[in-house]
Specification:
- Helix 7 runs parallel beside helix 13 and helix 9 runs parallel beside helix 13.
- The longest helix has 22 residues.
- The chain folds into 3 domains: about 250 residues, Glutamine Phosphoribosylpyrophosphate, subunit 1, domain 1 (4-Layer Sandwich); about 190 residues, Glucose-6-phosphate isomerase like protein, domain 1 (Rossmann fold, 3-Layer(aba) Sandwich), CATH 3.40.50; about 150 residues, 3-Layer(aba) Sandwich (Rossmann fold), CATH 3.40.50.
- The protein is about 35% helix and about 25% strand.
- The protein is built from 18 helices and 28 strands.
- The strands form 5 sheets. It has a 9-stranded antiparallel sheet. The chain has a 7-stranded antiparallel sheet with strand order 5-7-8-9-13-14-15.
- By secondary structure, the chain is an alpha/beta fold.
- The structure holds 5-amino-5-deoxy-1-O-phosphono-D-mannitol.
- 5-amino-5-deoxy-1-O-phosphono-D-mannitol binds next to helix 9 and helix 16.
Amino acid sequence: MCGIVGYTGENQAAPILLDGLKRLEYRGYDSAGLAVRDGDALAEVVKATGKLYHLADKTDQGRSLPGNCGIGHTRWATHGDPSLINAHPHVSGNCSGSGSGKVESDVVGVHNGIIENYGELKEKLLRHGYLFYSDTDTEVVVKLVDYYYKKYKIGPVDAITRTMVRVRGSYALALMFKDHPGEIFAARKDSPLIIGTAENAAFLASDVPAILKYTRSVYYIGNLQVARLSPGSVKFYDLNGDEITLPLTEITWDAEAAEKGGYEHFMLKEIHEQPAAVRDTLGSLIKDGKIDLTAAGITDDILLSLSQIIITACGSAWHVGIAAQYVIEDMAKVPVRVELASEFRYRSLPMSKNILVIVISQSGETADSLAALRLAKEKGAETLAVVNVVGSTIAREADHVLYTLAGPEIAVATTKAYSAQLVALDALAVQMALVKGTVSAEQYSHLIEELIGIPDKITRVLEDKERLQWFSSKIANAHDIFFIGRGLDYAISLEGSLKMKEISYIHSEAYAAGELKHGTISLIEKNTLVIGVLTQSQMIEKTISNMAECKSRGAYLMGVTTNGNFAGEDSVNFTVYIPRTDEHFVSSLAVVPLQLLGYYTSVNRGLDVDKPRNLAKSVTVE
Ligand code: M6R
């Protein structure tokens, strides 16, 4: 998973490309590179390892690279180390070194995705005299395009479509050809790519925020389609090389929304945007006091016909699935299975039309979730995508799409998208319960009122952030943290634990509280932090007992509970109180202190909160 950008127009390309890459750094940040052409001159390639600022420094913020047409890349290594040699752009020529400097090559390109049959293609190209300098699959694609271009003496579009027929895997490709100055050619399959257009300019990028400063007019290029960009003009082609027309979309959200807006980190900003994300998402689903899922294609008839729901997702989105499982089963009495998308294909789950498979994904591009969606469709299930990024692959391929309205999420650790997903699934549960007759009309209205009240209550939780900031300074040197809870509190523990470990690098685990004593409790020693989530009234006492078991072995305790009489007040060392709400929806409130705790702990440890090591925002590899 990587980010790509392209620009051709009247302005100097390199600063625009660097600016776009900056906004795509969440997609990968182990190396970056640019290729820029100045009129008819050869393309000049510059690469740097590490974060983007190294490339910016190397090119004097882009100013030292003349030329109005160029492509850029920020990398998250898949094939080959994060080294200069493997950094993109890659070139078709048999050059020595890493392909940097002025390149004689006919083709130079950047790529996001994975070419599965790159080994076999490399063999073929080696037989035809091509030499390889990198370990990347991208170099193979660039050389394959060059091979067809020369062998058949065809134009760039035909050389690209021939390559597309030959390669297996996923790609968003941007290529420049020596014989076509001022033009960029792009192709896409299963990796995100958008094309932007403006007066006398054209852009391409892996994601909209990269070009939003320059244009709001965007084309969502489809799978197996090719684009040809020149200043002020974009043409599209299908796999036959025939020109096709795509609809132009006007982006309505603001570029400001993708900036930090005064917060120190995107993550903190996004934590604070949760009331709006939840309000907007619910606002799109609740009309005149009733839940209306028809915009997502989910009618009451569909809900009535369902005998089972299978939820599949990865990471935090999977945690949303675990929470939704408790809510849907309890409220609508419909059995729910939750499967990790990366394991989905290894289960022989029976599917039929009356099973709804829900794929939850912020990015809509997660490779495992996409593969699970495709498998579910193949097996004949009805599919619903709960997705944040409009026009993403999962959104386009599912039978039905319910968009969360969290806005662009930049921090690698998800917060607002998670919360928006949670309430979207809650709304689905409530509507299903009504349709299935498991709640009365009166209970239905009450549940909706409770849902509508959540954003304000999140705001109140956020007001307590200073205490969490203080507490996080005490735990910044912890080695292990355990998050425990029962029922929905367990689902929230999973998310709290992931937030902590992914950005603070402190080992943490989430356990169903009752399970701790079956082995894991042996890890508890003096001052091990145990965080109990205590919001489900039927289970609070039991979880407190489990926390007491830990305390008697030396643990230090933190609790997250609802306002009111809290039986554990004396035994728990630090307690966070959240407002009361219907217990089905309390996860939306309980998760917030845990997000803040992870955030402040990471800050206290001096880490890169928004771009934690080894991670990328959008995991487009399996
Ligand atoms: O874009 P998706 O929602 O499909 O992403 C799924 C996971 O990769 C994501 O939730 C990941 O676990 C985050 N780093 C969690 O903060």
